[in-house]
């Protein structure tokens, strides 16, 4: 069946392939916060002794999990990397402080 005015098949039998105005095919949800959380998590591995970078990674990662469901995996990786590095650096600072206090105690005792 053809449309006599346009000399083309009627849309009643052929799927309408037109795209609604204002939308695009393959448009994905924004993942900016998730990417930032992941980058901060990775950066916290390489920036030694910084407390601010892992804390920022955790905060941005939690915000990303709430706002960007499409980037949940990246946000979780950013959170876990930041938490792991924050815990590691805290443990290293505690051990270093204990060693310093032990050295002071040994020096004070005269041994």
From TrEMBL:
This protein's UniProt keywords: Membrane, Transmembrane, Transmembrane helix
Keyword Ribosomal protein: no
Residues covered by the DUF4190 domain: 33-92
Chain residue ranges for the region called Disordered: 1-25
One Pfam family of this chain: DUF4190
TM region positions: 35-63, 75-108
Protein name: DUF4190 domain-containing protein
Phylogenetic lineage: Bacteria, Bacillati, Actinomycetota, Actinomycetes, Micrococcales
């Amino acid at each position: 069946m053809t449309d006599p005015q346009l000399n083309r098949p009627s849309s009643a039998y052929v799927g309408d392939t037109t795209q609604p105005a204002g939308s695009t095919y393959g448009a994905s949800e924004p993942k900016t916060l998730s990417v930032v959380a992941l980058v901060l998590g990775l950066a916290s591995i390489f920036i030694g002794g910084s407390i601010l970078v892992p804390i920022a990674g955790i905060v941005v990662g939690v915000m990303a999990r709430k706002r960007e469901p499409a980037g949940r995996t990246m946000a979780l990786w950013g959170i876990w990397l930041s938490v792991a590095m924050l815990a590691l650096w805290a443990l290293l600072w505690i051990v270093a402080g204990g060693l310093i206090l032990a050295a002071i105690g040994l020096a004070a005792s005269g041994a």
